[in-house]
Design brief:
Distance between the termini: 54 Å
Strand order of the largest sheet: 1-4-5-6-9-8-7
Number of domains: 1
Length: 108
């Protein structure tokens, strides 16, 4: 019984430590060659990738996480000239996600 309790507690701690953040897009955007409409999304950091989850869509793109010297006040999305997301600064943290364009999936 004690082993089951310890296992459940460990699983809950690992699940709680998964990096998940809220993101609102105010314009049409592209990630990894796929289109996103304006709206609310959840962003998860997974190994060398970022997952962007909406109501119906899940987009995975290669990415790297970097640490800034100070915390970002707001979550900010940076785009290139083709409306592709290139960076997501996570408000309330000093983390930002650099989205790498995957040439095989139509990224430039």
């Amino acid at each position: 019984m004690l082993k089951k309790l310890v296992f459940c507690f460990t699983a809950a701690v690992l699940a709680a430590n998964a990096a998940s953040y809220r993101l609102t897009l105010f314009q049409n955007a592209k990630v990894n060659g796929k289109s996103l409409k304006p709206g609310d999304y959840r962003v998860e950091i997974k190994d060398n990738a970022v997952l962007i989850k909406g109501d119906r869509d899940v987009i995975e793109a290669p990415a790297r996480t970097e640490t800034a010297d100070k915390k970002f006040a707001n979550t900010t999305v940076r785009y290139n000239s083709n409306s592709e997301v290139t960076e997501i600064q996570l408000g309330g943290t000093n983390k930002h996600i650099v989205v790498l364009q995957d040439k095989a999936n139509g990224g430039n």
